[in-house]
Specification:
The protein is an all-alpha fold. The chain has 11 helices and no strands. It has one domain: ABC transporter involved in vitamin B12 uptake, BtuC (Orthogonal Bundle).
C-alpha cells in the first residue's frame, strides 16, 4: 500500500471515529473539554519526541495527567470544569512551546504536532485508530442507551439506581482516545474541528438522536477523504484541508436547516 492510499484509509478511519465520538462530545456538551484536551496533549507529544518514544504514547500519558488535573481543579469550591479546562488549555500549550524552544534540534518538526501530517501516518498509527474505532463502536453499542439516558435526564438516571460515574468515565476515555488517535493526522490544534464539526452538522440534519450516531461518522470520513484529495490537488497541508472540509459540512448543514425552516414558514 502506497503512502497516499494509506493516508486515505487513515482519513476514513480517523474521520469516522472522530464523528462517532464527537457525537458524545456535542450531546454531552464536552466541546470545550475536548478542545482543552487537544491543546494540552501537545507537551506530551513534544516530550515523547525528546525521549524517542511514540508520539501517541506521549499524548496519551499527557491526557491521563490532564484529565486528573481537570477533575481536581473542577472540584475546588467556586471553580468548575470550564475553569479547569481553560487553565489547562493555555498552560499545556505553553508548556509544549517551552519544551520545543528548549530543544530546537528535535528530530520531528513541531508544527507537525499542531496541524498534523496524515500523509506520514505509520501502519502503527492506522492500527491504533482502527482499534480505538472498534472499541468505540462496541462501547456505544453496549452502553449507548445508558449514555443517552444520563445525557438527557441525569436526575432520572440517578433515580433509576444507576451511577453516573462509570458512564462519565467511559465517555472521557473515548474522548481522550479519539484526541490521541487524531493527533498524528490533524494535529493538536485542528483535532477539535474533526471531532465537533461532523457531529454538530449531523445534529442539524438528523430527525432522531440515533441518526446522529450514523450520519456523523459518515460526515467525518467524508471530511477526511475530501481533505486529503484537496491537499493533493491544491498542494496544501492535509490537516487544515480536513478541518476546513469538516467546517464546510457544518456550514452546509446549517444552510440546509435554515432553508428548511424558511420553507416551512412560507408554507404556513
Amino acid at each position: 500500500m502506497g503512502y497516499f492510499e494509506q493516508a486515505l484509509l487513515a482519513a476514513v478511519v480517523i474521520g469516522a471515529l472522530s464523528g462517532l465520538v464527537g457525537t458524545l462530545v456535542v450531546l454531552r456538551k464536552r466541546t470545550f473539554f475536548a478542545q482543552a484536551l487537544t491543546h494540552a496533549t501537545f507537551p506530551g507529544a513534544v516530550g515523547a519526541t525528546m525521549l524517542g518514544l511514540s508520539i501517541p504514547l506521549g499524548a496519551a500519558v499527557a491526557s491521563v495527567v490532564i484529565v486528573g488535573l481537570m477533575t481536581v481543579i473542577g472540584q475546588v469550591r467556586r471553580q468548575g470544569s470550564q475553569v479547569a479546562s481553560g487553565i489547562l488549555l493555555t498552560a499545556g500549550f505553553a508548556l509544549g512551546v517551552l519544551l520545543q524552544s528548549l530543544n530546537p534540534a528535535l528530530p520531528v518538526r513541531v508544527d507537525s504536532f499542531l496541524v498534523g501530517s496524515i500523509l506520514t501516518v505509520t501502519p502503527g498509527d492506522l492500527m491504533l485508530a482502527t482499534g480505538v474505532f472498534v472499541f468505540a463502536l462496541l462501547a456505544i453499542g453496549l452502553f449507548g442507551k445508558q449514555i443517552l439516558f444520563s445525557t438527557f435526564d441525569v436526575n432520572g438516571y440517578r433515580a433509576a439506581g444507576y451511577r453516573e460515574g462509570p458512564i462519565e468515565a467511559l465517555t472521557l476515555v473515548l474522548i481522550t482516545a479519539t484526541v490521541v488517535t487524531a493527533m498524528p493526522a490533524v494535529g493538536a490544534i485542528l483535532a477539535i474541528a474533526l471531532i465537533a464539526a461532523p457531529a454538530a452538522a449531523a445534529r442539524l440534519v438528523s430527525h432522531t438522536t440515533t441518526h446522529i450516531f450514523v450520519i456523523a461518522p459518515v460526515i467525518g470520513a467524508a471530511s477526511g477523504v475530501i481533505g486529503v484529495f484537496l491537499s493533493r490537488a491544491l498542494d496544501v497541508a492535509a490537516g487544515p484541508a480536513i478541518a476546513l472540509t469538516a467546517a464546510g459540512f457544518f456550514v452546509l448543514a446549517l444552510a440546509m436547516r435554515r432553508s428548511q425552516q424558511m420553507w416551512l414558514r412560507l408554507k404556513a
